[in-house]
Design brief:
single chain; about 20% strand; 3 helices; alpha+beta; 3 strands
């Protein structure tokens, strides 16, 4: 059965597609970008966990097995494996401004904490997403700063050197 078409309605589908396509593409780009943002947050959290695991292990005699520099290198290797970048696109290098390794000696047990702070993430497909969602008054580049941290019970009795 053939549907009768009125005169002048032949291009409606094309016009509707032309109006809807930019919105659909914006939604797809947002899904991809925010998916990558959450993936990067997941990588940072796992890197902090790996560092805390390394810092919590006890060596021979019950002393801490890893120094602060060695724990930082464990975290750096994990971030390098997943190609985490800084805001300029170069490989992220951990230093005292974005990495901390601390321990607490307590009566209920010793703990170690590894924290990654102010790790930049720039959106790829929607570079102005920060301004879109948080307003233009946020200032600075369109970069999200991510933080991750992990605290674990330490196996050692004597703290790291």
């Amino acid at each position: 059965m053939r549907r009768l078409q009125r005169h002048g309605e032949g291009g409606n589908i094309s016009v509707e597609l032309g109006l809807a396509m930019p919105l659909l593409l914006l939604m797809v780009a947002g899904i991809i970008d925010f998916g990558m943002l959450f993936w990067e947050k997941h990588v940072l959290t796992n890197a902090a966990r790996e560092g805390a695991r390394a810092g919590a292990r006890a060596g021979t005699g019950g002393t801490a097995e890893q120094t602060q520099g060695q724990v930082r290198q464990v975290v750096q290797n994990y971030l390098d494996r997943f190609h985490v970048k800084n805001d300029s696109g170069a490989a992220l290098v951990l230093d005292g401004s974005n990495f901390s390794y601390t321990w607490t000696l307590g009566g209920s047990g010793n703990t170690v904490t590894v924290a990654l702070v102010q790790i930049p993430y720039r959106m790829m497909l929607l570079p102005n997403a920060r301004e879109i969602f948080f307003g233009s008054g946020t200032g600075g580049p369109a970069v999200f700063h991510l933080n991750a941290g992990t605290t674990m019970a330490a196996e050692w009795v004597a703290p790291p050197p």
